[in-house]
Amino acid sequence: MFKYLRIFSFLAIFVFVGCASPTIYTKPEFSDVTKSHRKVAILPFTVNIDSKNQSKDFTVEMARKAEKDEGYLFQQQIYAQFLKQQSKGRYTVDFQDVEYTNFLLRKGGITYENIMNYTKSDLARKLGVDAVISGTIKRTKPMSGTGAAVLGILVGYWGSTNKVDVSLNLYGEKSNDLLWKYDHEASGSVGSSPERLAKSLMKGISKDFPYKRQRN
What we know:
This is Secreted protein. Residues 1-20 form the signal peptide. It is a single chain. This protein is of the alpha/beta class. It has one domain (26-208): ABC-type transport auxiliary lipoprotein component (Rossmann fold, 3-Layer(aba) Sandwich), CATH 3.40.50. 43% of the residues lie in helices and 21% in strands. Strands 1, 2, 3, 4, 5, 6 and 7 form a 7-stranded mixed sheet that branches. Helix 3 crosses helix 7.
């Protein structure tokens, strides 16, 4: 009996970590500053994988490639989620197609590796938009497949195995001031993906995104 209680207590910790409340900041003057905004671009995400938790076979080069690949995947998935919300008439702005965003970045000599050398307002001007959304994702390596499988078999629950910290930031074209920030901590289960994380994020963001259209 006590053994099962310990197991369920352990699972409860996982559940609470996965449901941590987001931290949100909105610039007090947001409505005045953004009243003329019509289009927003989503930049490739910056992804940081904790190298300390990787296997010895996972080289630095492999880590950098994985980070870059995931950065573009998250950009695409967040864009897809925003489009779903926008198609329902929930926002006052449109979102620039990410393929076009990346085309303009490449055309301007801006790469995943050097994009941090530009201010967000510079990027917004180069992309011809009123604001840009940038994102940072920090994640750890999931526990081993065997460990996760044992946990799932014991109680029929596939517990969280990968801590993920996500930060979305919104900057305007006219200044480099932070207009809105959304910080979220999640725990991805075995087989977690950019799509799953994006959907999870959007559940919270859709309620608090500052461009949300006011209902009469």
